[in-house]
Amino acid sequence: MRVSVIIPTLNAGAWIVPLLESLRTQSRRPDEVLVVDSDSADGTAALARQHGARVLTLRRECFDHGGTRDWALRQSCGDIVFFLTQDALPADDRYVERLLTPFEDLRVSAASGRQLPRPEARLYVKAVQAYRYPAQSRVWDAADADALGLRAFHLSDACAAYRRSAYEAVGGFVTSLPTNEDMLIASAFLKDGWRLAYCAEATVLHSHSFTFRQEYLRNRQVGRFLARYASRLGSSGELGEGMRMARAVSLQLLRDGHVMECAAFALNCAARLLGSRAGRRDEARRQRGQSRAYEG
Fold it and tell me: Whole-prediction pTM value?
């Protein structure tokens, strides 16, 4: 079984060498590593080539979360194709080996790993990631979707792997997609009768320290996405899942005596909520405009 790893990059000079070195020293080394670089200005492409990666390049304005990954996957050789973001660093030398394990079940179409916060991450970021990426692995299918809600589409291309035959069977990523291509293909896998897996033993270091403005803008984009694809994702459960996460994280922070971090987390949640609602309004306006244009 051949294994490919695809890494989209943009000005990844600070990240790419440690990441490629980590892949080179894995217990199960990938058969190929593809770096897809979007006109980096810091020498990312040259560094990637120097460290053994095959480099594909495209203009920065042409990058698309779904389309670019689809393009790269179709140029790769792997029977199992891994995706990593440039700032997701395998936590040990068995990441690839462990994320391959779920594919021993021939019904598993895709698997994602556990994202551990970086040591410098804020306490509330660490608590959020502990909630989102628990220590217990699981496998699920369409029969579990109602009980799981949006968690049924838990598949993160920060650290995920795909069975090529399953990917091609469902038509691949939706192109012209600015965010959440992983959730959308997860819904396609479940609809087509495949299973998904979360492998907690396959770990990467990956976390963000977004400002409140960045969190708002990010969730505005996600809100548009969830509203546009509500029929496929059942995204009415978004608020409920968000509330469960907010409650669990807040209680944990308070139990640990981190009152100020709890207050900062409350502001972060407000930014998420406001952004999501704004995104949903954006999509509603877009749909009304399309409807009027059609009627005209």
Answer: 0.94
